[in-house]
From TrEMBL:
Protein name as it appears in the record: histidine kinase
Native species: Candidatus Nomurabacteria bacterium CG_4_9_14_0_2_um_filter_32_10
Catalyzed reaction equations: ATP + protein L-histidine = ADP + protein N-phospho-L-histidine
Database matches in SMART domains: HATPase_c
Keyword set, alphabetical order: Kinase, Transferase
Amino acid sequence: MHLVTHKVKGSFTRSKYIFAGILDGTFGDVNEEVKKRAEQGLESDNMGIETVDLVLNVANMQKGIVKYEMKIFDLKGLVEKTISEKRVSAEAKGLKLETEIGGDTYNVLGDVFWLKEVLNNLVENSIKYTREGKITVGLSKHEKKILFYVKDTGVGVSEEDKKNLFTEGGRGKDSVKVNVDSTGYGLYSVKLIVEAHKGKVWMEPNKDGPGSTFFVELDAQ
């Protein structure tokens, strides 16, 4: 697995630098059509590299060789940073990105890098699978639990597809129609990371309209 994925990633990386060289003028002047194709190629290579990294991360998590650097920190700052980073891509699709975060502190014990991966994945998914409407990112505290959630007005998840969520390679029929590049590894990696933090992750269909809400529950510190 690792040998194959590293070779594939190497191929993507080499062609990525070729496309980047075309765009930055390394190979001289090119016409607009060539630039357009180079931009498409660069975007495709970046997606390929991200997919390979995701598969490698999942393989390492399954083997138990991922090292988590656990420390107590306020999850609120990480959530706000994620929202700030994703706002441009949401607004580019005409989507509203709203927040529901109180003034409390939301201390959790976790690895900042890997929990950021969880937040990124869930917010990015909502943006990808929502054609119109809004995405609401929330954070709340209930006794000794911290609850992070992402609510969207997207395609939703059918009862048939619900059982495939958070499984390796699991993809919904409706989600594939919206995002043909879906690998099904994103939510599976979220599940592995959250469980490594002794937390829970799940999805519920929205009761007040279209779309879904994804929840992550962690112990409060």
